Amino acid sequence: MEFEFDEDQRLLQRLVRETVAKSRSQPPDQLWATYLELGWLEAPPVELAIALEELGYAADPTPFLATATWFAPLAGRLPSGSGTGVFDGTGRFVLDADRADEIALLTRDGVRIVTGPELGAARVDIFDPTLHAAHVEVPDLVPGIPDLALMGLAISTVGSCRRILDLAVAHVKERVQFDVPIGSFQAVKHKAADMYVAIERARALAYFSALTIAEDDPRRGRAASMAKAAAGECQRIVFRNGFQLFGAMGFTWENELQIHLKRAKAGDLLLGTAAVHRRALLEKTRQVQEKTRQVQEKARQERERSGPQRRRSGPDRETSGQEGAVAG
Asked: Model-level pTM greater than 0.90?
């Protein structure tokens, strides 16, 4: 399986990065119109992950993530405008449900599409003021989280963590203590290195999840849970170390760091924390092991049943041959 970007993918990465950097000061509606015009929503899973990572890096305020990874996999199409999906069985903290033009609902009777005004979900206050979430009160909801939704949250969280690391590294290079930059201290270097390792691990698993989705690999469900768990664990390390390297000023509203800290934390909490997905992975492993044990036990029982028959059949054939010789 190829883990390096090809030339077209690297070009897309540069395009998204440059576009987002140039238009960060624009209001969300104008940003959203730009994304629609560029056609990023139609990208296949790996290319979509590339776009989502860069949007996560910039703490994108548009409904791109919910539209591409919450609505589209559930509805099987892109919405007319923006969209989101309800598929966790509870309808709690649904991303962008307060401003989506269309909402896909996973119910006992299948997927039902309703308009945002028809549903009338009200935005709820959360710790990240740049993120939209709402509770959806609809009967007969059932759980069935798409793999693409988990992958999207994972790679977006990785993007947020990359931004936290970049801000922290820039700060420790400039912050002087004892007449030297604090980045020269070994303890500070270790914290930055731990952040980098956690990000690279989570990033690799997120792109592996995108690859399995693109190839419809049977491991896609497991890969999506692995990616979400790794991203959650990554944000904990990056949040703790990044905050500590900045000191108290890192969580003031005047500092950009607090935006990305909150966005990374939200990425872990939405659709299950790292602990939830680790338990899910353990349960899947247990089920596979139990199924393997049952198959092996069945094969052993069949061997035991067929063994005595083969042993009896040998002497019978030999006796029949001797009787034939005597008769001759």
From this structure: no
